[in-house]
Amino acid sequence: MLKEHLDPRKPSGTGYTSKVRVRDKYHIVGFISSGTYGRVYKALGKNGQKGEFAIKKFKPDKEGEIIQYTGLSQSAIREMALCSELDHANVVQLEEIILEDKAIFMVFEYTEHDLLQIIHHHTQPHRHAIPAPMVRSILFQLLNGLLYLHTSWVLHRDLKPANILVTSSGAIRIGDLGLARLFYKPLNSLFSGDKVVVTIWYRAPELLMGSRHYTPAVDLWAVGCIFAELLSLRPIFKGEEAKMDSKKTVPFQRNQMMKIIEIMGLPTKDIWPGIVSMPEYSQLQSLAMSRAPGHFPRSSNLEGWYQSCLKNGGYATSSGAGTPGADGYDLLSRLLEYDPTKRITAQEALEHPYFKNGGPISANCFEGFEGKYPHRRVTQDDNDIRSGSLPGTKRSGLPDDSLMGRASKRLKE
Amino acid sequence: MAANYWASTQRRHWLFTKERLADIRESFRERDKAAHSQFPLPDQRLLNIYFSQQLIKLGKRMSTRQQALATAQVYIKRFYTKNEIRHTNPYLVVTTAFYLACKMEECPQHIRFVVAEARNFWPEFIAPDVSKLGECEFALISEMNSQLIVHHPYRTLSELQPELSLTSDEVALAWSVINDHYLTDLPLLYPPHVIAVMAIIVAVVFKPSQTSFHGTAAPLAGAMRDGGMNILAALGDKNGAGPPPRIQKLVGWLAESEVDIRAVIECTQELVSLYEIWENYSEKHCKELLGRMVKSKNLDK
Predict the structure, then answer these.
(1) Can you tell me the ipTM of this complex?
(2) How far is CA A114 from CA A96, A374, B92, in A?
(3) Contact state of B299 with A185 under an 8 Å Cβ cutoff
C-alpha cells in the first residue's frame, strides 16, 4: 500500500534491476545441456560483439507461478566468485555474469568439444584408439590447468571427461567449477561442507573410505581415471553408486570400491598406512572377508590392465610417438596411487618422463590428427536432454536454499 | 588467482586511493544534496562501528567466525562505493552482506534463518519475506561484479607469527587491531599484508596489558599517539640505540622486508584517529539517525 508513495526518481539501492540484459547482448541459438543447477545454451554475440558463447543459466526457483528471489545456492556463489578470479589458458574463460530476472547467467567462451564426446566418438562406429600424441597433449594441458588451480588453492572436486572442455583449436579447458572451492584454511572442515563430492567413477579411494580431510590429491586420482579412460575408451572403475538413504547418511560405496580393488588390488596398511584410521575401514575389511580368499588380487594388476589396453587399442608395441609406452604406465600408476600422501602432484606429474621424453607437446591436441570430431549438439527445442546412463554429481550437503524452500513447502501441503 | 593477492580482483578492482574515495563520496553528495542536508549521518567510521556491532549481534547466535564478519564488512564498504547510503536500507544491506559472506566463507546459513534472526533485532526494518534479502543479494553481487573473494590480513598474521616469534598475547592484540581496521577505510586503501604488519607493530610496541579493546580504546589511542612517535623514529633511524631489543628486531625485519613502510605508518595514523573518534560513538545516535532516514524515505519497503 505504501509502495505508491515511493519516489520513483530515487529507487532503493537494494532493489534490483539489471543494467545489462542477456537478450540485448546475446542471440541464443540453441540448448546444449541441463543439470541440477540449470541449463546451458549456445549463443552468439550481438551488436558487434563477435564470437560464440556458452551461457549457463542457474534456474530460479519457482514457488507457485511467480518466480521469487530465494537466495542463491552456495554452489552458484562459489562458481561465480572463482570464475571471476581465475585466469588461465587451461581453465574455462568467463566472459561476464549477468544477473537478470531473478536468474544468473554466466557467459563463458564456447567450446566445441569435451572429452566425453571425444571418447564417445572413438567408439563409433567401431572402437578406434585416440592417437597417443593427442592423449599426451590432453593430459599435459589438463595437468597444467590443474596445477594452476591447486597453486591458487582451488580444489576442483568434480573432474570427469564431461567437464574437460576442448576448443576447436585443440586447447583443453577445465570447466564446471560448481563444486570447486578454496582449501586454504577453510573455516569448516572440507567434509562438513559437502558430504559427497566427485562423480563416483572418478572418486578417489580416500573419499570412498570416508576421509574428512582430503587434499588436492583427489583431483589427481580423477586425472588418473581420465588418463585410463582416454586409452581404453571406457571408465576404468565403472561402479554403481549406492544411493543416500532417507537419513541423509552417506553410504559406503561398496561396489565402486570393489571395482577399484579388482584392478588395483586390496589396499593394505603397508602401502597405505593411513587407511586403518579411515572411517570406512571396517567396511573395507568386511568387504574383503565377504569373498573367498584370493577373490581380490593382493597386489596391483594395473600393469596387466595397461598392457592389454595398449594391445586392444592397437598402440605401437615398440616405444615412440605411437604409444604412451612404459612412461605412460609409470605416470598412470602414480596417479592411481592408493595413498593420497604418496600420490603424484600436478607439479610432479608435469615433470614426469612421460612428458619429458618423446619430443615436444603441442598446445593443440588435434595437431597431426586427420579425423574430425562432430560439433557439439545444439538443439532448438528446450527439452531436458539428460544422459541417463551417466551418474551425476551429487551436490548435497549444502542445502540449496531454493530446494529447501520447496521441500518445506511440500511438507506443509 | 584466487589465493594470490597480487593477481586478485581485490588488488585490481577494489583498491582505491584516498582521493578517489573522497571523490566518489563527494559525487554522491553532489547528486543528492537534498537528502544529505535532510538526513545527516554520523562520521563514516562511527557508522562502521554501528554496522559491525549489528553484524556481531547477527553472527552470535549462528556462531559465525570472525572472518565471515570481516568479509561482510568489506562487502558493505564495496557496496557503498557504488551506492549512496541514503538510497538504501542499511539494515537490509548489513543482513544481506552477512548472508552472502557466510556462503563465501564456507559457513552458510539458511536464508530463512538469517531473516528470522535479523527480524529479532530490527523488526521494523527487515521484512518477513525472504525475497527482499534475495533481491538485495542480487544488488550486492552485481555491484561487486561477482568479485566476492576477499583477502584478509589474518592470514599474513598467522604466517608471520613464527617468523617474528610473536607471543600469543601479541598475536591476540594484533588480531583485534585487524578487527578494528574494518571500521575504517583501510581495507579499501591498502593490501592485507600492510595491514597485518601495522597490526603486528601496534601489538609489539603497545603491550596488550594497556588495552581493553572495543569501546574503550581511548587509552590505546593515547598510548599510540605518544609512543607512536618512538616507533616512527626508530623506523626512520635504523641505527638508533633507543628502542628495546624486541622492537629493534621487528624494525630490522621490516627494513629487510619489502613492505611499504610509509603505508604502514599511514595505516597506524588511520587507526589512531579511529580510536580518537571512537570516544564520540553513541549507538543510540546512529540508530536514531539511520532509523529516521529509513522510515521517512520508506527505504524499508
Answers:
(1) 0.88
(2) 22, 11, 43
(3) no
